[in-house]
Amino acid sequence: MKILSKEQIYEGDRLTAERQNVSSTDLMERAGTAIFNWMHMRMQGAQVPIHVFCGIGNNGGDGLVLARHLITHGYNVITYIVNCGNGRSKDFLVNYDRIKNVTKDWPKLLTCKEDFPEIHVDDIIVDAVFGIGLNRAVDPWIQELFVHFKSTGAFTLSIDIPSGLYTDKPIEPESSAVMANYTLSFQAPKLIFFLPETAEHSTQWEVLDIGIDRDYLMSTETEVELISKHEVLPFYKRRDKFSHKGDFGHGLIIGGSKGKMGAVVLATKGMLSAGAGLATAYIPECGYTVLQTAVPEAMALTDDGDDYIEDLEFEFEPTAIGIGVGLGTDPKTITAFEHFLKLNKAPLVIDADALNILSLSKKLLKLLPEGSILTPHPKELERLIGQWDNDFEKLDKTSEFSSKHKVSVVIKGANTITVHGNKKYVNTSGNPGMATGGAGDVLTGVITGLICQGYPPIEATLFGVYLHGRSADLALEDYGYQSLLASHIADGLGEAFIDLFKQPEQEQQQEPEPEKEAQQRRKAKRARR
Ligand SMILES: NC(=O)C1=CN([C@@H]2O[C@H](COP(=O)(O)OP(=O)(O)OC[C@H]3O[C@@H](n4cnc5c(N)ncnc54)[C@H](OP(=O)(O)O)[C@@H]3O)[C@@H](O)[C@H]2O)[C@@H](O)CC1
Ligand SMILES: [K+]
Protein backbone atom coordinates (compact mmCIF):
# COMPACT_ATOMS: atom_id res chain seq x y z
CA MET A 1 0.00 0.00 0.00
CA LYS A 2 1.30 3.42 -0.87
CA ILE A 3 1.87 6.01 1.81
CA LEU A 4 1.26 9.34 0.14
CA SER A 5 2.91 12.56 1.19
CA LYS A 6 0.77 15.49 2.33
CA GLU A 7 1.25 17.17 -1.06
CA GLN A 8 0.22 13.98 -2.88
CA ILE A 9 -2.92 13.72 -0.75
CA TYR A 10 -3.95 17.28 -1.58
CA GLU A 11 -3.23 16.62 -5.26
CA GLY A 12 -5.30 13.42 -5.13
CA ASP A 13 -8.21 15.35 -3.62
CA ARG A 14 -7.93 18.03 -6.27
CA LEU A 15 -7.73 15.58 -9.17
CA THR A 16 -10.59 13.52 -7.83
CA ALA A 17 -12.83 16.55 -7.65
CA GLU A 18 -11.84 17.44 -11.21
CA ARG A 19 -12.13 13.96 -12.76
CA GLN A 20 -15.27 12.92 -10.94
CA ASN A 21 -16.82 16.33 -11.39
CA VAL A 22 -17.54 16.73 -7.70
CA SER A 23 -16.87 19.66 -5.40
CA SER A 24 -14.49 19.68 -2.43
CA THR A 25 -17.65 19.98 -0.30
CA ASP A 26 -18.82 16.67 -1.78
CA LEU A 27 -15.48 15.08 -0.93
CA MET A 28 -15.79 16.32 2.62
CA GLU A 29 -19.29 14.87 2.75
CA ARG A 30 -17.85 11.51 1.67
CA ALA A 31 -15.14 11.74 4.32
CA GLY A 32 -17.48 12.67 7.17
CA THR A 33 -20.03 10.08 6.05
CA ALA A 34 -17.39 7.35 5.94
CA ILE A 35 -16.51 8.13 9.56
CA PHE A 36 -20.19 8.18 10.49
CA ASN A 37 -20.81 4.79 8.87
CA TRP A 38 -17.84 3.33 10.73
CA MET A 39 -19.17 4.58 14.07
CA HIS A 40 -22.81 3.78 13.36
CA MET A 41 -22.01 0.19 12.48
CA ARG A 42 -20.28 -0.27 15.83
CA MET A 43 -22.53 1.84 18.03
CA GLN A 44 -25.93 0.86 16.62
CA GLY A 45 -27.60 3.92 18.12
CA ALA A 46 -26.10 3.60 21.65
CA GLN A 47 -26.71 6.78 23.64
CA VAL A 48 -23.13 7.28 24.82
CA PRO A 49 -22.29 11.01 24.86
CA ILE A 50 -20.11 11.77 21.82
CA HIS A 51 -18.01 14.96 22.06
CA VAL A 52 -16.98 16.10 18.59
CA PHE A 53 -14.15 18.66 18.68
CA CYS A 54 -13.78 20.50 15.39
CA GLY A 55 -11.00 22.82 14.25
CA ILE A 56 -11.73 25.49 11.68
CA GLY A 57 -10.12 23.92 8.61
CA ASN A 58 -11.20 20.93 6.57
CA ASN A 59 -10.47 18.43 9.32
CA GLY A 60 -12.92 20.40 11.44
CA GLY A 61 -15.30 20.33 8.45
CA ASP A 62 -15.13 16.52 8.44
CA GLY A 63 -16.03 16.64 12.14
CA LEU A 64 -19.06 18.82 11.41
CA VAL A 65 -20.29 16.42 8.71
CA LEU A 66 -19.91 13.53 11.14
CA ALA A 67 -21.68 15.43 13.93
CA ARG A 68 -24.59 16.28 11.60
CA HIS A 69 -25.09 12.63 10.62
CA LEU A 70 -24.81 11.50 14.22
CA ILE A 71 -27.44 14.07 15.24
CA THR A 72 -29.86 13.17 12.46
CA HIS A 73 -29.54 9.50 13.47
CA GLY A 74 -30.50 10.25 17.04
CA TYR A 75 -27.10 10.03 18.74
CA ASN A 76 -26.21 12.00 21.86
CA VAL A 77 -23.81 14.55 20.35
CA ILE A 78 -22.12 17.66 21.70
CA THR A 79 -20.18 19.61 19.07
CA TYR A 80 -17.40 22.09 19.84
CA ILE A 81 -15.49 24.50 17.66
CA VAL A 82 -11.89 24.86 18.79
CA ASN A 83 -11.31 28.46 17.87
CA CYS A 84 -7.70 28.28 16.85
CA GLY A 85 -7.65 31.22 14.43
CA ASN A 86 -9.68 33.33 12.04
CA GLY A 87 -9.19 31.58 8.72
CA ARG A 88 -12.20 29.25 8.56
CA SER A 89 -12.09 27.11 5.42
CA LYS A 90 -14.86 27.37 2.82
CA ASP A 91 -16.08 23.82 3.36
CA PHE A 92 -15.93 24.24 7.12
CA LEU A 93 -18.31 27.19 6.78
CA VAL A 94 -20.66 25.27 4.47
CA ASN A 95 -20.93 22.50 7.03
CA TYR A 96 -21.19 24.92 9.91
CA ASP A 97 -24.37 26.24 8.29
CA ARG A 98 -25.60 22.73 7.55
CA ILE A 99 -25.30 21.54 11.13
CA LYS A 100 -27.21 24.57 12.35
CA ASN A 101 -30.09 23.41 10.14
CA VAL A 102 -30.43 20.07 11.90
CA THR A 103 -30.16 21.01 15.59
CA LYS A 104 -30.92 23.76 18.03
CA ASP A 105 -27.80 22.78 19.97
CA TRP A 106 -25.36 24.79 17.94
CA PRO A 107 -21.68 24.00 18.29
CA LYS A 108 -20.07 25.47 21.41
CA LEU A 109 -17.13 27.77 20.85
CA LEU A 110 -13.97 26.97 22.84
CA THR A 111 -11.44 29.78 23.16
CA CYS A 112 -9.57 29.05 26.36
CA LYS A 113 -8.99 26.51 29.09
CA GLU A 114 -11.98 27.71 31.11
CA ASP A 115 -14.25 26.57 28.27
CA PHE A 116 -13.14 22.91 28.43
CA PRO A 117 -16.11 20.62 28.97
CA GLU A 118 -16.32 17.83 31.50
CA ILE A 119 -15.96 14.47 29.84
CA HIS A 120 -16.79 11.19 31.52
CA VAL A 121 -14.50 8.20 31.09
CA ASP A 122 -17.28 6.29 29.32
CA ASP A 123 -17.93 9.08 26.80
CA ILE A 124 -16.43 9.22 23.32
CA ILE A 125 -14.18 12.00 22.07
CA VAL A 126 -13.91 12.66 18.35
CA ASP A 127 -10.79 14.62 17.50
CA ALA A 128 -11.29 16.71 14.35
CA VAL A 129 -9.18 19.67 15.41
CA PHE A 130 -6.24 19.50 12.99
CA GLY A 131 -5.61 17.20 10.04
CA ILE A 132 -2.75 17.13 7.59
CA GLY A 133 -2.89 20.93 7.29
CA LEU A 134 -1.11 21.61 10.59
CA ASN A 135 1.69 24.01 9.71
CA ARG A 136 2.88 25.57 12.97
CA ALA A 137 3.10 24.91 16.67
CA VAL A 138 -0.22 24.40 18.39
CA ASP A 139 -1.28 27.17 20.86
CA PRO A 140 -0.59 26.20 24.46
CA TRP A 141 -4.28 26.25 25.43
CA ILE A 142 -5.08 23.80 22.61
CA GLN A 143 -2.20 21.59 23.73
CA GLU A 144 -3.86 21.63 27.14
CA LEU A 145 -7.10 20.59 25.51
CA PHE A 146 -5.30 17.54 24.11
CA VAL A 147 -3.92 16.78 27.56
CA HIS A 148 -7.47 17.17 28.89
CA PHE A 149 -8.70 14.56 26.37
CA LYS A 150 -6.13 12.12 27.68
CA SER A 151 -6.81 12.85 31.34
CA THR A 152 -10.49 11.97 30.93
CA GLY A 153 -9.59 8.41 29.89
CA ALA A 154 -12.44 8.53 27.36
CA PHE A 155 -12.09 6.62 24.07
CA THR A 156 -10.61 9.05 21.57
CA LEU A 157 -11.20 8.66 17.85
CA SER A 158 -9.03 10.85 15.63
CA ILE A 159 -10.10 11.84 12.17
CA ASP A 160 -7.37 11.38 9.55
CA ILE A 161 -4.45 11.95 11.94
CA PRO A 162 -4.18 12.64 15.68
CA SER A 163 -4.32 16.42 15.98
CA GLY A 164 -1.05 18.14 16.70
CA LEU A 165 1.09 15.75 14.63
CA TYR A 166 2.71 16.77 11.37
CA THR A 167 2.83 14.29 8.53
CA ASP A 168 6.41 15.05 7.57
CA LYS A 169 8.29 16.43 10.55
CA PRO A 170 8.53 15.90 14.28
CA ILE A 171 6.45 17.88 16.73
CA GLU A 172 8.29 20.50 18.73
CA PRO A 173 9.75 19.20 21.95
CA GLU A 174 7.43 19.78 24.90
CA SER A 175 4.34 20.11 22.72
CA SER A 176 1.37 17.80 23.00
CA ALA A 177 -0.57 15.98 20.37
CA VAL A 178 -3.71 13.89 20.75
CA MET A 179 -3.22 10.33 21.99
CA ALA A 180 -5.83 8.54 19.93
CA ASN A 181 -7.22 5.13 20.77
CA TYR A 182 -8.13 4.78 17.12
CA THR A 183 -7.42 6.82 14.00
CA LEU A 184 -9.53 6.68 10.86
CA SER A 185 -7.29 7.86 8.07
CA PHE A 186 -8.47 8.80 4.62
CA GLN A 187 -7.32 6.79 1.63
CA ALA A 188 -3.82 5.95 2.87
CA PRO A 189 -2.11 5.50 6.22
CA LYS A 190 0.33 8.16 7.33
CA LEU A 191 4.04 7.45 7.85
CA ILE A 192 3.87 8.72 11.45
CA PHE A 193 1.73 5.70 12.40
CA PHE A 194 4.87 3.59 12.04
CA LEU A 195 7.65 5.70 13.51
CA PRO A 196 8.81 4.98 17.07
CA GLU A 197 8.39 8.58 18.26
CA THR A 198 4.86 9.07 16.99
CA ALA A 199 3.31 5.60 16.69
CA GLU A 200 2.02 5.71 20.27
CA HIS A 201 -0.34 8.54 19.25
CA SER A 202 -2.32 6.15 17.09
CA THR A 203 -1.74 2.59 18.17
CA GLN A 204 -4.70 1.43 16.13
CA TRP A 205 -5.66 2.83 12.78
CA GLU A 206 -7.74 2.02 9.77
CA VAL A 207 -7.92 3.44 6.28
CA LEU A 208 -11.28 4.60 4.95
CA ASP A 209 -11.87 4.71 1.23
CA ILE A 210 -13.34 8.03 0.14
CA GLY A 211 -13.16 7.27 -3.57
CA ILE A 212 -9.97 9.12 -4.48
CA ASP A 213 -9.27 8.71 -8.19
CA ARG A 214 -8.01 5.14 -8.81
CA ASP A 215 -5.74 6.06 -11.71
CA TYR A 216 -4.07 8.68 -9.60
CA LEU A 217 -3.51 6.24 -6.75
CA MET A 218 -2.21 3.54 -9.08
CA SER A 219 0.14 5.76 -11.05
CA THR A 220 1.55 7.90 -8.28
CA GLU A 221 5.06 6.92 -7.18
CA THR A 222 5.45 7.34 -3.46
CA GLU A 223 8.59 7.51 -1.37
CA VAL A 224 7.07 5.25 1.26
CA GLU A 225 5.27 1.93 0.87
CA LEU A 226 3.64 -0.33 3.39
CA ILE A 227 4.60 -3.98 2.94
CA SER A 228 2.08 -6.66 3.77
CA LYS A 229 1.09 -10.00 2.26
CA HIS A 230 -0.47 -8.28 -0.73
CA GLU A 231 2.84 -6.65 -1.68
CA VAL A 232 5.13 -9.67 -1.17
CA LEU A 233 2.96 -12.34 -2.75
CA PRO A 234 3.98 -11.40 -6.31
CA PHE A 235 7.63 -12.00 -5.34
CA TYR A 236 7.00 -15.67 -4.57
CA LYS A 237 8.86 -18.06 -6.86
CA ARG A 238 7.12 -21.34 -7.53
CA ARG A 239 9.17 -24.53 -7.59
CA ASP A 240 9.35 -26.62 -10.67
CA LYS A 241 8.60 -30.33 -10.28
CA PHE A 242 11.97 -31.27 -11.73
CA SER A 243 14.02 -28.81 -9.73
CA HIS A 244 16.92 -30.00 -7.60
CA LYS A 245 18.96 -28.53 -4.77
CA GLY A 246 21.44 -27.03 -7.20
CA ASP A 247 18.68 -24.74 -8.46
CA PHE A 248 18.31 -22.99 -5.14
CA GLY A 249 21.81 -21.84 -4.53
CA HIS A 250 24.52 -22.52 -2.03
CA GLY A 251 24.42 -20.03 0.82
CA LEU A 252 27.23 -19.26 3.21
CA ILE A 253 26.94 -17.87 6.72
CA ILE A 254 30.16 -16.40 8.06
CA GLY A 255 30.38 -15.67 11.74
CA GLY A 256 30.66 -17.05 15.23
CA SER A 257 33.20 -16.77 17.99
CA LYS A 258 33.62 -18.55 21.29
CA GLY A 259 30.36 -18.19 23.23
CA LYS A 260 28.47 -16.87 20.21
CA MET A 261 28.05 -19.91 18.02
CA GLY A 262 24.28 -19.89 18.52
CA ALA A 263 24.07 -16.86 16.23
CA VAL A 264 25.52 -18.88 13.34
CA VAL A 265 23.26 -21.82 14.12
CA LEU A 266 20.21 -19.56 13.98
CA ALA A 267 21.26 -17.79 10.79
CA THR A 268 22.04 -21.10 9.09
CA LYS A 269 18.68 -22.51 10.12
CA GLY A 270 16.99 -19.36 8.87
CA MET A 271 18.78 -19.67 5.53
CA LEU A 272 17.76 -23.30 5.10
CA SER A 273 14.17 -22.62 6.19
CA ALA A 274 13.94 -19.84 3.62
CA GLY A 275 14.74 -22.41 0.95
CA ALA A 276 18.47 -22.29 0.18
CA GLY A 277 19.44 -25.48 -1.67
CA LEU A 278 22.70 -25.94 0.21
CA ALA A 279 24.05 -24.29 3.31
CA THR A 280 27.56 -23.92 4.63
CA ALA A 281 28.69 -22.14 7.77
CA TYR A 282 32.18 -20.69 7.97
CA ILE A 283 33.14 -20.63 11.63
CA PRO A 284 36.11 -20.69 14.01
CA GLU A 285 37.37 -24.11 14.98
CA CYS A 286 35.58 -24.07 18.35
CA GLY A 287 32.19 -24.05 16.65
CA TYR A 288 32.60 -27.17 14.57
CA THR A 289 30.81 -29.68 16.80
CA VAL A 290 28.17 -27.15 17.80
CA LEU A 291 27.27 -26.41 14.20
CA GLN A 292 27.34 -29.99 12.95
CA THR A 293 25.17 -31.13 15.84
CA ALA A 294 22.68 -28.29 15.85
CA VAL A 295 22.20 -28.08 12.06
CA PRO A 296 22.87 -31.49 10.49
CA GLU A 297 21.56 -30.20 7.16
CA ALA A 298 24.45 -27.74 6.88
CA MET A 299 28.12 -28.18 6.06
CA ALA A 300 30.81 -26.59 8.17
CA LEU A 301 34.07 -24.95 7.10
CA THR A 302 36.43 -23.98 9.85
CA ASP A 303 38.83 -21.09 10.06
CA ASP A 304 42.38 -21.39 11.37
CA GLY A 305 41.35 -19.39 14.41
CA ASP A 306 40.19 -21.42 17.39
CA ASP A 307 37.98 -18.94 19.19
CA TYR A 308 37.31 -16.38 16.49
CA ILE A 309 37.82 -15.97 12.76
CA GLU A 310 41.37 -15.00 11.80
CA ASP A 311 41.77 -15.82 8.10
CA LEU A 312 38.47 -15.99 6.31
CA GLU A 313 39.53 -17.95 3.28
CA PHE A 314 37.52 -20.59 1.46
CA GLU A 315 37.60 -22.06 -1.97
CA PHE A 316 34.08 -22.21 -3.31
CA GLU A 317 31.82 -19.54 -4.75
CA PRO A 318 28.70 -19.16 -2.64
CA THR A 319 25.54 -17.85 -4.30
CA ALA A 320 25.03 -15.41 -1.42
CA ILE A 321 26.74 -14.73 1.88
CA GLY A 322 25.34 -13.64 5.24
CA ILE A 323 28.16 -12.26 7.34
CA GLY A 324 28.63 -10.89 10.82
CA VAL A 325 26.47 -12.90 13.22
CA GLY A 326 28.40 -13.60 16.43
CA LEU A 327 31.59 -12.60 14.59
CA GLY A 328 33.23 -10.41 17.26
CA THR A 329 35.54 -7.50 16.52
CA ASP A 330 39.00 -8.86 17.32
CA PRO A 331 41.69 -6.99 15.30
CA LYS A 332 42.57 -10.24 13.49
CA THR A 333 38.93 -10.71 12.53
CA ILE A 334 38.82 -7.13 11.24
CA THR A 335 41.87 -7.72 9.05
CA ALA A 336 40.40 -10.99 7.79
CA PHE A 337 37.10 -9.24 7.02
CA GLU A 338 38.88 -6.54 5.01
CA HIS A 339 40.80 -9.18 3.08
CA PHE A 340 37.56 -11.04 2.42
CA LEU A 341 35.79 -7.91 1.14
CA LYS A 342 38.59 -7.25 -1.33
CA LEU A 343 38.17 -10.69 -2.91
CA ASN A 344 34.44 -11.23 -2.55
CA LYS A 345 32.09 -11.15 -5.53
CA ALA A 346 28.95 -12.71 -3.97
CA PRO A 347 25.93 -10.66 -2.85
CA LEU A 348 26.20 -9.84 0.85
CA VAL A 349 23.83 -9.59 3.78
CA ILE A 350 25.73 -7.79 6.52
CA ASP A 351 24.71 -7.93 10.15
CA ALA A 352 25.86 -7.46 13.73
CA ASP A 353 29.64 -7.33 14.23
CA ALA A 354 30.30 -7.00 10.49
CA LEU A 355 28.30 -3.75 10.73
CA ASN A 356 30.30 -2.71 13.77
CA ILE A 357 33.53 -3.35 11.88
CA LEU A 358 32.24 -1.19 9.01
CA SER A 359 31.46 1.55 11.53
CA LEU A 360 34.95 1.30 12.99
CA SER A 361 36.55 1.40 9.56
CA LYS A 362 34.28 3.35 7.22
CA LYS A 363 36.71 3.04 4.30
CA LEU A 364 35.61 -0.59 4.02
CA LEU A 365 32.18 0.58 2.87
CA LYS A 366 33.72 1.20 -0.55
CA LEU A 367 34.44 -2.52 -0.85
CA LEU A 368 30.81 -3.62 -0.49
CA PRO A 369 29.27 -5.02 -3.65
CA GLU A 370 26.50 -2.81 -5.03
CA GLY A 371 23.11 -3.88 -3.68
CA SER A 372 24.47 -5.29 -0.41
CA ILE A 373 21.93 -5.51 2.39
CA LEU A 374 22.79 -4.07 5.81
CA THR A 375 20.54 -5.09 8.69
CA PRO A 376 21.31 -2.86 11.69
CA HIS A 377 19.28 -2.41 14.84
CA PRO A 378 19.06 1.25 15.89
CA LYS A 379 22.32 1.25 17.89
CA GLU A 380 24.26 -0.30 15.01
CA LEU A 381 22.65 2.18 12.64
CA GLU A 382 23.75 5.07 14.83
CA ARG A 383 27.33 3.82 14.68
CA LEU A 384 27.08 3.76 10.89
CA ILE A 385 25.35 7.04 10.12
CA GLY A 386 25.82 9.09 13.29
CA GLN A 387 23.20 10.43 15.69
CA TRP A 388 19.84 11.80 14.66
CA ASP A 389 17.49 14.18 16.39
CA ASN A 390 14.25 12.54 15.36
CA ASP A 391 12.77 9.75 13.25
CA PHE A 392 12.51 11.87 10.12
CA GLU A 393 16.16 12.82 10.31
CA LYS A 394 17.04 9.17 10.90
CA LEU A 395 15.26 8.19 7.68
CA ASP A 396 16.83 11.05 5.72
CA LYS A 397 20.32 10.18 6.89
CA THR A 398 19.77 6.50 6.14
CA SER A 399 18.53 7.37 2.65
CA GLU A 400 21.62 9.45 2.08
CA PHE A 401 23.84 6.61 3.31
CA SER A 402 21.99 4.08 1.18
CA SER A 403 22.31 6.19 -1.99
CA LYS A 404 25.94 7.07 -1.35
CA HIS A 405 27.09 3.49 -0.79
CA LYS A 406 24.54 1.85 -3.12
CA VAL A 407 23.32 -0.50 -0.41
CA SER A 408 19.93 -1.18 1.18
CA VAL A 409 19.52 -0.67 4.91
CA VAL A 410 17.04 -2.63 6.99
CA ILE A 411 16.32 -0.60 10.12
CA LYS A 412 15.12 -3.26 12.53
CA GLY A 413 12.41 -2.31 14.99
CA ALA A 414 8.71 -2.62 15.78
CA ASN A 415 8.01 -1.59 12.21
CA THR A 416 11.13 -2.60 10.37
CA ILE A 417 11.83 -0.07 7.62
CA THR A 418 13.95 -1.00 4.61
CA VAL A 419 15.60 2.02 3.07
CA HIS A 420 16.61 1.64 -0.56
CA GLY A 421 17.89 4.96 -1.86
CA ASN A 422 15.00 7.36 -1.53
CA LYS A 423 12.45 4.58 -1.14
CA LYS A 424 11.30 3.42 2.28
CA TYR A 425 9.42 0.18 2.80
CA VAL A 426 7.57 -0.21 6.09
CA ASN A 427 6.99 -3.80 7.13
CA THR A 428 3.69 -4.68 8.79
CA SER A 429 4.29 -8.15 10.19
CA GLY A 430 5.93 -8.93 13.53
CA ASN A 431 5.27 -8.38 17.20
CA PRO A 432 6.99 -7.53 20.50
CA GLY A 433 7.75 -11.23 21.09
CA MET A 434 10.56 -10.74 18.57
CA ALA A 435 12.45 -8.55 21.02
CA THR A 436 14.55 -11.57 21.91
CA GLY A 437 18.18 -12.57 21.33
CA GLY A 438 18.89 -14.22 18.00
CA ALA A 439 15.85 -12.96 16.08
CA GLY A 440 18.11 -10.76 13.95
CA ASP A 441 20.45 -13.66 13.21
CA VAL A 442 17.52 -15.63 11.81
CA LEU A 443 16.59 -12.67 9.60
CA THR A 444 20.11 -12.49 8.17
CA GLY A 445 19.83 -16.15 7.25
CA VAL A 446 16.35 -15.78 5.75
CA ILE A 447 17.35 -12.91 3.47
CA THR A 448 20.54 -14.73 2.42
CA GLY A 449 18.52 -17.88 1.70
CA LEU A 450 16.12 -15.97 -0.53
CA ILE A 451 18.93 -14.30 -2.49
CA CYS A 452 20.37 -17.80 -3.00
CA GLN A 453 17.19 -18.79 -4.80
CA GLY A 454 17.44 -15.96 -7.28
CA TYR A 455 15.31 -13.30 -5.61
CA PRO A 456 16.82 -9.89 -6.41
CA PRO A 457 18.38 -8.57 -3.18
CA ILE A 458 15.76 -5.88 -2.51
CA GLU A 459 12.88 -8.32 -3.10
CA ALA A 460 14.63 -10.91 -0.93
CA THR A 461 14.88 -8.30 1.79
CA LEU A 462 11.27 -7.13 1.73
CA PHE A 463 10.02 -10.70 1.41
CA GLY A 464 12.41 -11.97 4.11
CA VAL A 465 11.52 -9.23 6.58
CA TYR A 466 7.83 -9.92 6.01
CA LEU A 467 8.12 -13.73 6.32
CA HIS A 468 10.30 -13.44 9.42
CA GLY A 469 7.71 -11.22 11.14
CA ARG A 470 4.83 -13.32 9.94
CA SER A 471 6.46 -16.48 11.27
CA ALA A 472 6.72 -14.78 14.66
CA ASP A 473 3.08 -13.70 14.46
CA LEU A 474 1.96 -17.26 13.77
CA ALA A 475 4.19 -18.61 16.56
CA LEU A 476 2.53 -16.27 19.07
CA GLU A 477 -0.43 -18.56 19.33
CA ASP A 478 1.79 -21.27 20.83
CA TYR A 479 4.36 -19.24 22.74
CA GLY A 480 2.95 -15.82 23.57
CA TYR A 481 5.17 -12.75 23.65
CA GLN A 482 7.40 -13.86 26.52
CA SER A 483 8.31 -17.38 25.44
CA LEU A 484 8.79 -16.78 21.75
CA LEU A 485 12.38 -17.68 20.87
CA ALA A 486 14.42 -16.90 17.79
CA SER A 487 14.54 -20.59 16.90
CA HIS A 488 10.73 -20.67 16.83
CA ILE A 489 10.88 -18.00 14.12
CA ALA A 490 13.23 -20.16 12.02
CA ASP A 491 11.17 -23.28 12.68
CA GLY A 492 7.90 -21.53 11.78
CA LEU A 493 9.05 -20.05 8.51
CA GLY A 494 7.27 -22.80 6.59
CA GLU A 495 3.98 -21.75 8.18
CA ALA A 496 4.65 -18.22 7.03
CA PHE A 497 5.18 -19.42 3.43
CA ILE A 498 1.98 -21.49 3.56
CA ASP A 499 0.09 -18.59 5.08
CA LEU A 500 0.85 -16.51 1.98
CA PHE A 501 -1.69 -18.56 0.09
CA LYS A 502 -4.39 -18.74 2.73
CA GLN A 503 -7.50 -16.75 2.02
CA PRO A 504 -8.50 -14.19 4.62
CA GLU A 505 -10.97 -15.56 7.17
CA GLN A 506 -13.82 -13.40 5.89
CA GLU A 507 -13.63 -14.72 2.37
CA GLN A 508 -13.71 -18.25 3.68
CA GLN A 509 -16.90 -17.42 5.53
CA GLN A 510 -18.39 -16.05 2.37
CA GLU A 511 -17.91 -19.35 0.59
CA PRO A 512 -20.85 -19.96 -1.70
CA GLU A 513 -23.46 -22.23 -0.17
CA PRO A 514 -23.25 -24.92 -2.89
CA GLU A 515 -19.51 -25.32 -2.23
CA LYS A 516 -20.16 -25.69 1.49
CA GLU A 517 -22.81 -28.30 0.81
CA ALA A 518 -20.48 -30.16 -1.52
CA GLN A 519 -17.85 -30.18 1.18
CA GLN A 520 -20.32 -31.56 3.69
CA ARG A 521 -21.38 -34.24 1.25
CA ARG A 522 -17.77 -35.24 0.62
CA LYS A 523 -17.18 -35.38 4.37
CA ALA A 524 -20.26 -37.54 4.94
CA LYS A 525 -19.20 -39.85 2.13
CA ARG A 526 -15.74 -40.28 3.63
CA ALA A 527 -17.31 -41.02 7.02
CA ARG A 528 -19.53 -43.73 5.48
CA ARG A 529 -16.53 -45.50 3.91
N1 LIG B 1 -8.27 18.23 0.87
C1 LIG B 1 -9.50 17.70 0.69
O1 LIG B 1 -10.16 17.89 -0.29
C2 LIG B 1 -10.05 16.87 1.76
C3 LIG B 1 -9.54 17.00 3.03
N2 LIG B 1 -10.06 16.36 4.03
C4 LIG B 1 -9.70 16.73 5.38
O2 LIG B 1 -9.03 17.95 5.38
C5 LIG B 1 -7.88 17.88 6.21
C6 LIG B 1 -6.89 18.90 5.79
O3 LIG B 1 -7.55 20.10 5.88
P1 LIG B 1 -6.84 21.53 5.86
O4 LIG B 1 -5.86 21.56 4.77
O5 LIG B 1 -7.90 22.54 5.84
O6 LIG B 1 -6.06 21.55 7.20
P2 LIG B 1 -6.42 21.19 8.69
O7 LIG B 1 -5.59 20.06 9.07
O8 LIG B 1 -7.88 21.04 8.91
O9 LIG B 1 -5.89 22.47 9.48
C7 LIG B 1 -6.71 23.56 9.50
C8 LIG B 1 -6.03 24.84 9.19
O10 LIG B 1 -5.57 25.37 10.40
C9 LIG B 1 -4.51 26.27 10.19
N3 LIG B 1 -3.45 25.89 11.08
C10 LIG B 1 -2.42 25.09 10.82
N4 LIG B 1 -1.67 24.91 11.91
C11 LIG B 1 -2.28 25.62 12.89
C12 LIG B 1 -1.99 25.83 14.24
N5 LIG B 1 -0.95 25.26 14.81
N6 LIG B 1 -2.81 26.60 14.95
C13 LIG B 1 -3.87 27.19 14.39
N7 LIG B 1 -4.20 27.01 13.10
C14 LIG B 1 -3.41 26.24 12.36
C15 LIG B 1 -4.13 26.18 8.76
O11 LIG B 1 -4.62 27.30 8.08
P3 LIG B 1 -3.84 28.70 8.09
O12 LIG B 1 -4.12 29.35 9.42
O13 LIG B 1 -2.38 28.40 7.92
O14 LIG B 1 -4.44 29.44 6.95
C16 LIG B 1 -4.84 24.88 8.30
O15 LIG B 1 -5.18 24.92 6.96
C17 LIG B 1 -7.46 16.45 6.10
O16 LIG B 1 -6.65 16.07 7.16
C18 LIG B 1 -8.79 15.76 6.08
O17 LIG B 1 -9.26 15.59 7.39
C19 LIG B 1 -11.21 15.51 3.83
O18 LIG B 1 -12.34 16.33 4.02
C20 LIG B 1 -11.25 14.89 2.47
C21 LIG B 1 -11.15 15.92 1.42
K1 LIG C 1 -7.58 15.08 13.71
UniProtKB/TrEMBL annotation:
Assigned keywords, A-Z: ATP-binding, Isomerase, Lyase, Metal-binding, Multifunctional enzyme, NAD, NADP, Nucleotide-binding, Potassium
Domain YjeF C-terminal: start-end pairs: 228-500
Source organism superkingdom: Bacteria
SUPFAM superfamilies named in the record: Ribokinase-like, YjeF N-terminal domain-like
PROSITE patterns: YJEF_C_2, YJEF_C_3, YJEF_N
Record-linked InterPro entries: Carbohydrate_kinase_pred_CS, CARKD, Nnr, Ribokinase-like, YjeF_N_dom, YjeF_N_dom_sf
Residues at which (6S)-NADPHX binds: 58-62, 131-137, 160, 263, 326, 377, 441
Region (Disordered): 502-529
Keyword Ribosomal protein part of the UniProt annotation: no
EC annotation from Swiss-Prot or TrEMBL: 4.2.1.136, 5.1.99.6
Keyword Nucleotide-binding attached: yes
Co-factor binding details: Binds 1 potassium ion per subunit.
Catalytic activity reported: (6S)-NADHX + ADP = AMP + phosphate + NADH + H(+); (6R)-NADHX = (6S)-NADHX; (6S)-NADPHX + ADP = AMP + phosphate + NADPH + H(+); (6R)-NADPHX = (6S)-NADPHX
All residue ranges annotated as the YjeF N-terminal domain in the record: 9-218
One Pfam family in the UniProt entry: Carb_kinase
Function: Catalyzes the dehydration of the S-form of NAD(P)HX at the expense of ADP, which is converted to AMP. Together with NAD(P)HX epimerase, which catalyzes the epimerization of the S- and R-forms, the enzyme allows the repair of both epimers of NAD(P)HX, a damaged form of NAD(P)H that is a result of enzymatic or heat-dependent hydration.
UniProt protein name: Bifunctional NAD(P)H-hydrate repair enzyme
Taxonomic lineage of the native organism: Bacteria, Pseudomonadati, Bacteroidota, Flavobacteriia, Flavobacteriales
